Amino acid sequence: MAIRHNIKQAEIGEQLTLSIEKGEGFSEWKDGSRMLVDSDQLSFIYVMETEDDLVYISLPEQFWGQLSEALSKELPVVLKTAEEDHSFELSALHSELSYLLENIKGNSNYGDNMLEAVERLFPANSK
């Protein structure tokens, strides 16, 4: 069963830093290099892996403005917890998110709410 963590904070500087609550074995996680869509929760999911499980990092709509800015400025995206010094660069976020945005554009299969939110919050990618 996948473990799910929600982003709690997003800060833009020279990179986009995404913060979650402490994740069990965080320093042992590996980048899964793929993303999913949770259109029911209006969220993109970045997949991390452990030896035995998948870890879903939920990027809810409230942080899409920062994601859009990071994508358009080609800023690195880093995942961290408040409790640990360890962090991960989410190496596939730009390519995976761009791919998903292209698939969602004009596609009602993701639901009207998802389509509207993507077109509103990722205007540079929704032409």
Distance N terminus to C terminus? 37 Å
Main β sheet profile: 4 strands, mixed
For this entry, what is the oligomeric state of its chains? single chain
Strand residue percentage: 25-35%
What's the rounded overall pLDDT mean? Answer: 92
Please tell me about this protein's structure:
- Strand 7 (77-81) and strand 8 form a beta hairpin.
- The chain is an alpha/beta fold.
- Helix content is 25%, strand content 35%.
- The longest helix has 12 residues, at 93-104.
- It has three helices and eight strands.
- A four-stranded mixed β-sheet has the order 1-6-5-4, with helices on one face. Strands 2-3-7-8 form a four-stranded mixed β-sheet, covered by helices on one side.
List its salient traits:
127 residues, alpha/beta, four-stranded mixed sheet, 3 helices
Question: What is the fold's blueprint, element by element?
Answer:
Blueprint: E1 3-6, E2 9-12, E3 16-20, E4 30-38, E5 43-49, E6 54-60, H1 64-73, E7 77-81, E8 87-89, H2 93-104, H3 112-121
Parallel strand pairs: 1-6, 3-7
Antiparallel strand pairs: 2-3, 4-5, 5-6, 7-8
